[in-house]
Write a structure and sequence with these properties.
The protein is of the alpha/beta class and about 250 residues long. The protein has a domain at about 30-135 and about 165-185 and about 220-240: ABC-type transport auxiliary lipoprotein component (Rossmann fold, 3-Layer(aba) Sandwich), CATH 3.40.50.10610. It is built from 4 helices and 7 strands, in the order αββαβαββββα. α2 packs across α4 (about 220-240). The longest helix is centred in the last third of the chain and has 22 residues, at about 220-240. It is elongated.
C-alpha cells in the first residue's frame, strides 16, 4: 500500500507539471487593431524544414521527416487572417514559376487572337517586405518519465514524453535587404501512454494467464507548428510596433 501511495503521488505531480506547462494559444482575431498606414504587402517564398530530423522510431530507421514540409501554407494563412485580415496582403511567390507560365500563355493567346495591338496583361503586385524563416529545431525526449505499480498480479503504469519544436520568423525589407524583425518561438509536444495489466497463475502455478490493455495520446506536430507560426506572426507585429516600424490605428 505504501508503494502504491508513493507511486500515485509521484504520478500526480508529473501530470500536474504537464498540465501547468504554458501552451501557445491561437491569436484572437479581434485582439489586434488594424495598422495605421494600411495593409502591408508581403511575399512568402519558402518556410523550410531546417531541422534535418527524421520521424522518431525506436525499432526502425524512418525515412519520413519529423516535421511538415509544407509549413509555408500555415504561414500564409496566419498572415492573411491576423487582425481579421487587416495587416498583410500576401502575394504568390511559392508557386511563382506556375504563375509566370500562366501569364505567358495569356499573353500569347491574346497576341494570336487580337493581333499586335492586344491589350496587355495587368502587372504583378510586388511586395515591400519578405517574410522568411523556417523550422530550425526539433528536439525529442527533452522530458521523459512515468510511474507504475503492481500488486497481487494486477498493475497499472503511465509513461510520458515531451518534444520541442523551434520556429524562426524574419521580416526583411526588399528595398534595403535589412532584417527588420527576427522572432524565435518554441512549442512543446506531449505524448503519454496508460497501461493496465494482469498476471495470474492457475493450476498449482504451472500455467500463467496474462492480459494487458492500454491507450496513448500524442499532440499533433502539425498543430503545434501551426500554433507556433501564429504566435510568431503576432510577436513579429508587436516587435515591429516597439521598433517604430509600424503602429496600430487609433
Amino acid at each position: 500500500m505504501l508503494l502504491l501511495m508513493t507511486t500515485g503521488c509521484s504520478l500526480l505531480s508529473q501530470v500536474g507539471l504537464l498540465e501547468s506547462e504554458p501552451q501557445v494559444v491561437t491569436p484572437k482575431q479581434d485582439e489586434l487593431r488594424p495598422p495605421r498606414d494600411g495593409v502591408i504587402t508581403v511575399a512568402v517564398y519558402q518556410f523550410a524544414d531546417r531541422t534535418g530530423q527524421r520521424r522518431h522510431s525506436e525499432r526502425i530507421a524512418s525515412l519520413s521527416s519529423a516535421v511538415t514540409q509544407g509549413a509555408d501554407a500555415y504561414l500564409i494563412q496566419a498572415l492573411q487572417t491576423v487582425g481579421r485580415g487587416s495587416w498583410f496582403r500576401v502575394v504568390e511567390r511559392v508557386g511563382i514559376d506556375n504563375l509566370i507560365k500562366e501569364r505567358q500563355i495569356i499573353r500569347q493567346m491574346r497576341e494570336i487572337h487580337e493581333g499586335p495591338g492586344a491589350r496587355p496583361i495587368a502587372p504583378l503586385l510586388f511586395a515591400g517586405m519578405i517574410i522568411d524563416g523556417g523550422i530550425i529545431g526539433y528536439d525529442t525526449n527533452i522530458v521523459t518519465g512515468g510511474a507504475g505499480a503492481r500488486a497481487f498480479g494486477f498493475g497499472a503504469s503511465t509513461e510520458y514524453r515531451a518534444d520541442l519544436v523551434t520556429i524562426n520568423l524574419r521580416a526583411v525589407s526588399v528595398s534595403t535587404g535589412e532584417i527588420l524583425v527576427s522572432v524565435t518561438v518554441t512549442k512543446r509536444i506531449y505524448s503519454y501512454m496508460d497501461r493496465l495489466g494482469m498476471l495470474r497463475f492457475v493450476e498449482a502455478g504451472t500455467v500463467s494467464m496474462e492480459g494487458e490493455i492500454g491507450s496513448s495520446a500524442n499532440d499533433s506536430i502539425n498543430l503545434a507548428i501551426q500554433l507556433g507560426i501564429q504566435s510568431a506572426v503576432r510577436e513579429m507585429i508587436e516587435q515591429g510596433v516597439n521598433k517604430g516600424l509600424w503602429d496600430f490605428r487609433n
